[in-house]
Write a structure and sequence with these properties.
Elements lengths: L1 E5 L4 E8 L5 E3 L7 H4 L9 E2 L5 E3 L2 E4 L2 E4 L7 E3 L12 E7 L2 E10 L10 E9 L4 E10 L3 E2 L3 E2 L2 E2 L13 E4 L1 E5 L12 E2 L11 E2 H5 L4 H6 L3 E6 L9 E7 L6 E6 L3 E5 L22 E6 L14 E2 L5 E10 L1
Antiparallel strand pairs: 1-2, 2-3, 4-14, 5-8, 6-7, 9-10, 10-11, 11-12, 12-26, 13-25, 15-24, 16-19, 16-21, 17-18, 17-20, 20-23, 21-22, 22-26, 23-24
Amino acid sequence: MEVSVLTLGATLHTALVPDRTGAVAQVLLASDELGQILGPARHFGATVGRYANRIADSRITLDGHEHRLTPTGHGVTLHGGPDGFADRLWAAEEVADGERAGVRLHLHSPDGDQGFPGALDVWVSYLLDPAGELSIEYRAVTTRPTVINLTNHAYVNLAGEGSGDVLDHLLTLEADAYTPVDERQVPYGPYESVAGTPFDFTTARPIGGQLAQDHPQLKAAGGFDHNFVLRARPQDGVAARAALLTDPVSGRTLEVLTTEPGLQVYTANTFAGTVRGAAGVPYGPYAGIALETQHHPDSPHHPEYPSTELRPDEEFRSRTVLRFSW
């Protein structure tokens, strides 16, 4: 197995993974054309921040002070703003940890960046071991109280990029609830149970079969673009399983483990063929699936959600593991 990382956006760019016969395929949706990477593919595999997902009304309040964020449209600030971490050049250095090898990337985000308070220093490490386990480790510190929510935005197709859609992939989620959303894709209330709904992936189910069900939340988004509330994470900071994705044809599987409380599942509903990968095939709807480990969307406006606040005397740490097998 082999992965590559770009300093632009601290991006997980490729993952070459064998199947049950030993045939290797690139399983991440990606473009090698700079124009696409800076345009319609700008979030493909990128480290998204300072706040992944949506913040309603482009504002937050900390210690009684309101901070106006740079909007991205539709009444929200999405993925940290129009000039978020995915658009920055990160500094990189090679790292090694026993049998694991990889790269550590660093970014300095100044006080007031996209409206967020506090100068923030962020480190993201990608470490791959010989068994096919890729660890993504995040660390951050701030000079003022702020909010932070980091994720990786890779799109996966275990059959290989450009091979078609992921509708026959089997998905299992360690989640008994999700956060329903309004027309802006912002959570509007308490958690809802997945039981008896297309959102029930508590046992392995084909993605296409769940998408075909009649549900107003699926109709509004054109598919899945929702945050799932993961079962309680270990208190000792060990990453626990969030999802298992399987391609029955190739035999490739991806197990996602994380310390984060939520998982945004996005089935590339709006893809319109504007991005082509190495195979030269345009990516249409459902060409891949994003399994974004993170805190819940719009948490600053929902005190009942796990907090995303970070203060100067604290250190943000998060870990996600992508465990490939075949």
